[in-house]
Amino acid sequence: MRGYKRTDRLAELIREEIAEILVSGAVKDLQVGFVTITRVRVSADLSFADVYFSVLDGSWGYTKRQLEEHRVAIQGFMGKDLRLKRLPKLRFFEDRSLEHVERVEELIRRIKGEEEGGSDS
Q1: Edge to edge, what strands does the sheet with 89-94 contain?
Q2: Percentage of residues in the chain with pLDDT exceeding 70?
Q3: Does residue 42 lie in a domain region?
Q4: What angle do CA 54, 29, 85 make, to 5 degrees?
Q5: CATH code at 18?
């Protein structure tokens, strides 16, 4: 089995760290609802970390603006714990994959319902 690349290990550390920062309320003015950091991808040169998040209440735009406005503060807290020479710049992206899964499941339920309803004839 091949070991993880450095970028993969760093991405997981960043994901865990940002999740902890959001839960702890460390960034005082950051006001977001229930946000889940779903994954992080770190560029090969470690200059960027693309952070993907999901929300339950549909406040995608507001949440993204809040995260971007407080990016520097979030990076500051990360820097204290991760102790890297150079911290990747955070970029935030919506992860709507859960919405797609729910939509597919709904379509499957409808199809099954139509098949069951049609078999009575």
Answers
A1: 35-42, 48-55, 89-94
A2: 91
A3: yes
A4: 75
A5: 3.30.300.20
**pLDDT score at 2:** 53
- pTM of the predicted model, to two decimals? 0.77
- Token pair, residue 38, equals 């779903």
What letter represents residue 18's amino acid?
Answer: I
| 105 in any annotated domain | no
Host domain of residue 88: 6-95
CA 109/CA 77 separation, integer angstroms: 45
The rounded distance, in Å, linking the Cα atoms of 36 and 38 is 6
Question: Considering its fold, how many domains does the chain have in total?
Answer: 1
Give how far Cα 99 sits from Cα of 25, 44, 74, 104, Å: 27, 29, 27, 9
Helix (H, G, I), strand (E, B) or coil at 29: coil
| Residue 44 lies inside a defined structural domain of this protein | yes
